[in-house]
Amino acid sequence: MAARKGGRPYVWGHSKGEEVRIALTALLATITTLSFAAVPLTKGVTVKFLDAEAGGEFLAQPDDFTRSLSPFDRSVRLKVAREVTQKEFLAYVSKHGLDWTDKEEQWMTQRVKEVRMLLNGYRLPLPKTILLIKTTGKEDAGAAYTRRNAIVFSARRLKRNGAAMRKLFLHELFHVLSRNAPKLATKMYQIIGYEPSPELIFPEELAPRKLTNPDAPFSRHAIKFEHEGDAVKAIPILYSRVTKYDEKKGGTLFQYLVFRLLVLNEDNPAGAARDAEGKLILIRPDDAKGFHEKIGRNTGYIIHPEETMADNFVYLITAKKDLPNPEIVQRLGALLRPDRD
Fold first, then answer.
1. Checking DSSP bridges between strand 145-147 and strand 129-135, what pairing results, if any?
2. Backbone angles phi, psi at 334, to 5 degrees
3. Which SS3 state, helix, strand or coil, does residue 248 take?
4. Are 296 and 316 a contacting pair, CB within 8 Å?
5. How far is the C-alpha of 179 from the C-alpha of 186, rounded, in Å?
6. What is the pLDDT of residues 141-179, one digit of tens each?
7. Phi, psi of 222 (to 5 degrees)
8. Dihedral, CA atoms, 302, 314, 104, 53, nearest 10 degrees?
């Protein structure tokens, strides 16, 4: 869900981007060589715990997520009404890394070992190193999320019981997997009816208040359904219900979030369609005829095909029974276990 302004994405220039890429590569190389606690997950894949300093430094590096942030994205995360620059935002998130306690590290290591057993037999193109970062949670509304090859847990999320934490780890692991294997991700999205589409140019009137999901900071898969008797193609989008953060009312980004299906222009699928009055066509999921029949009803987490399939991945790995649409999980299993019947 790349943020746009006047048809152009919020990105830095090429030369600056190249400097960032080199810096990030150096940081990842340093992290890989440092002796952080490591746990094997699958063949050739290791999970490493980062301390507060390394975790903060990792989060402070620009990436697809930070480059996709809108003005509202940054202000709501800092809980201020004023404009926040990317530099200020990165400095802010860097301060929220925390050290893992010995007890937390041991407890999380056990969860990783449990997941390792569950993943046996699956063919998962994961990165060689998966980083675990603990934060205060203040940098992103207390949510668990991913950045590049790292999974981020707030201190509050680590208080979950063992079974809940296994599921949360698996959900976030899916995001690392799909980011590392985008072609595979597209095949998984196709299971629920999403097909590749040109990256959305976010509508000018919504671009400043776009809300960006760290696990899916892109809008390049669309789904077809029926609306008012016509076949349309749409992309799921998130945006704020107001133009500016309200410091008096406060709240996290989840209190401001609106989820809609944005109908695309038939002649220019990178752009939004408009009605006879020039207004955007924004559809509630329940009003999209045939939408739920495609994505299924296994989960209510439907804001993006990435999240819907992440939950179905959890159901596959944990062998969840009595799902409304077990065929989705079965097709996902066939994709990730090609050698099995």
1. unpaired
2. -65, -30
3. coil
4. no
5. 11
6. 999 999 999 999 999 999 999 999 999 999 999 999 999
7. -120, 160
8. -60
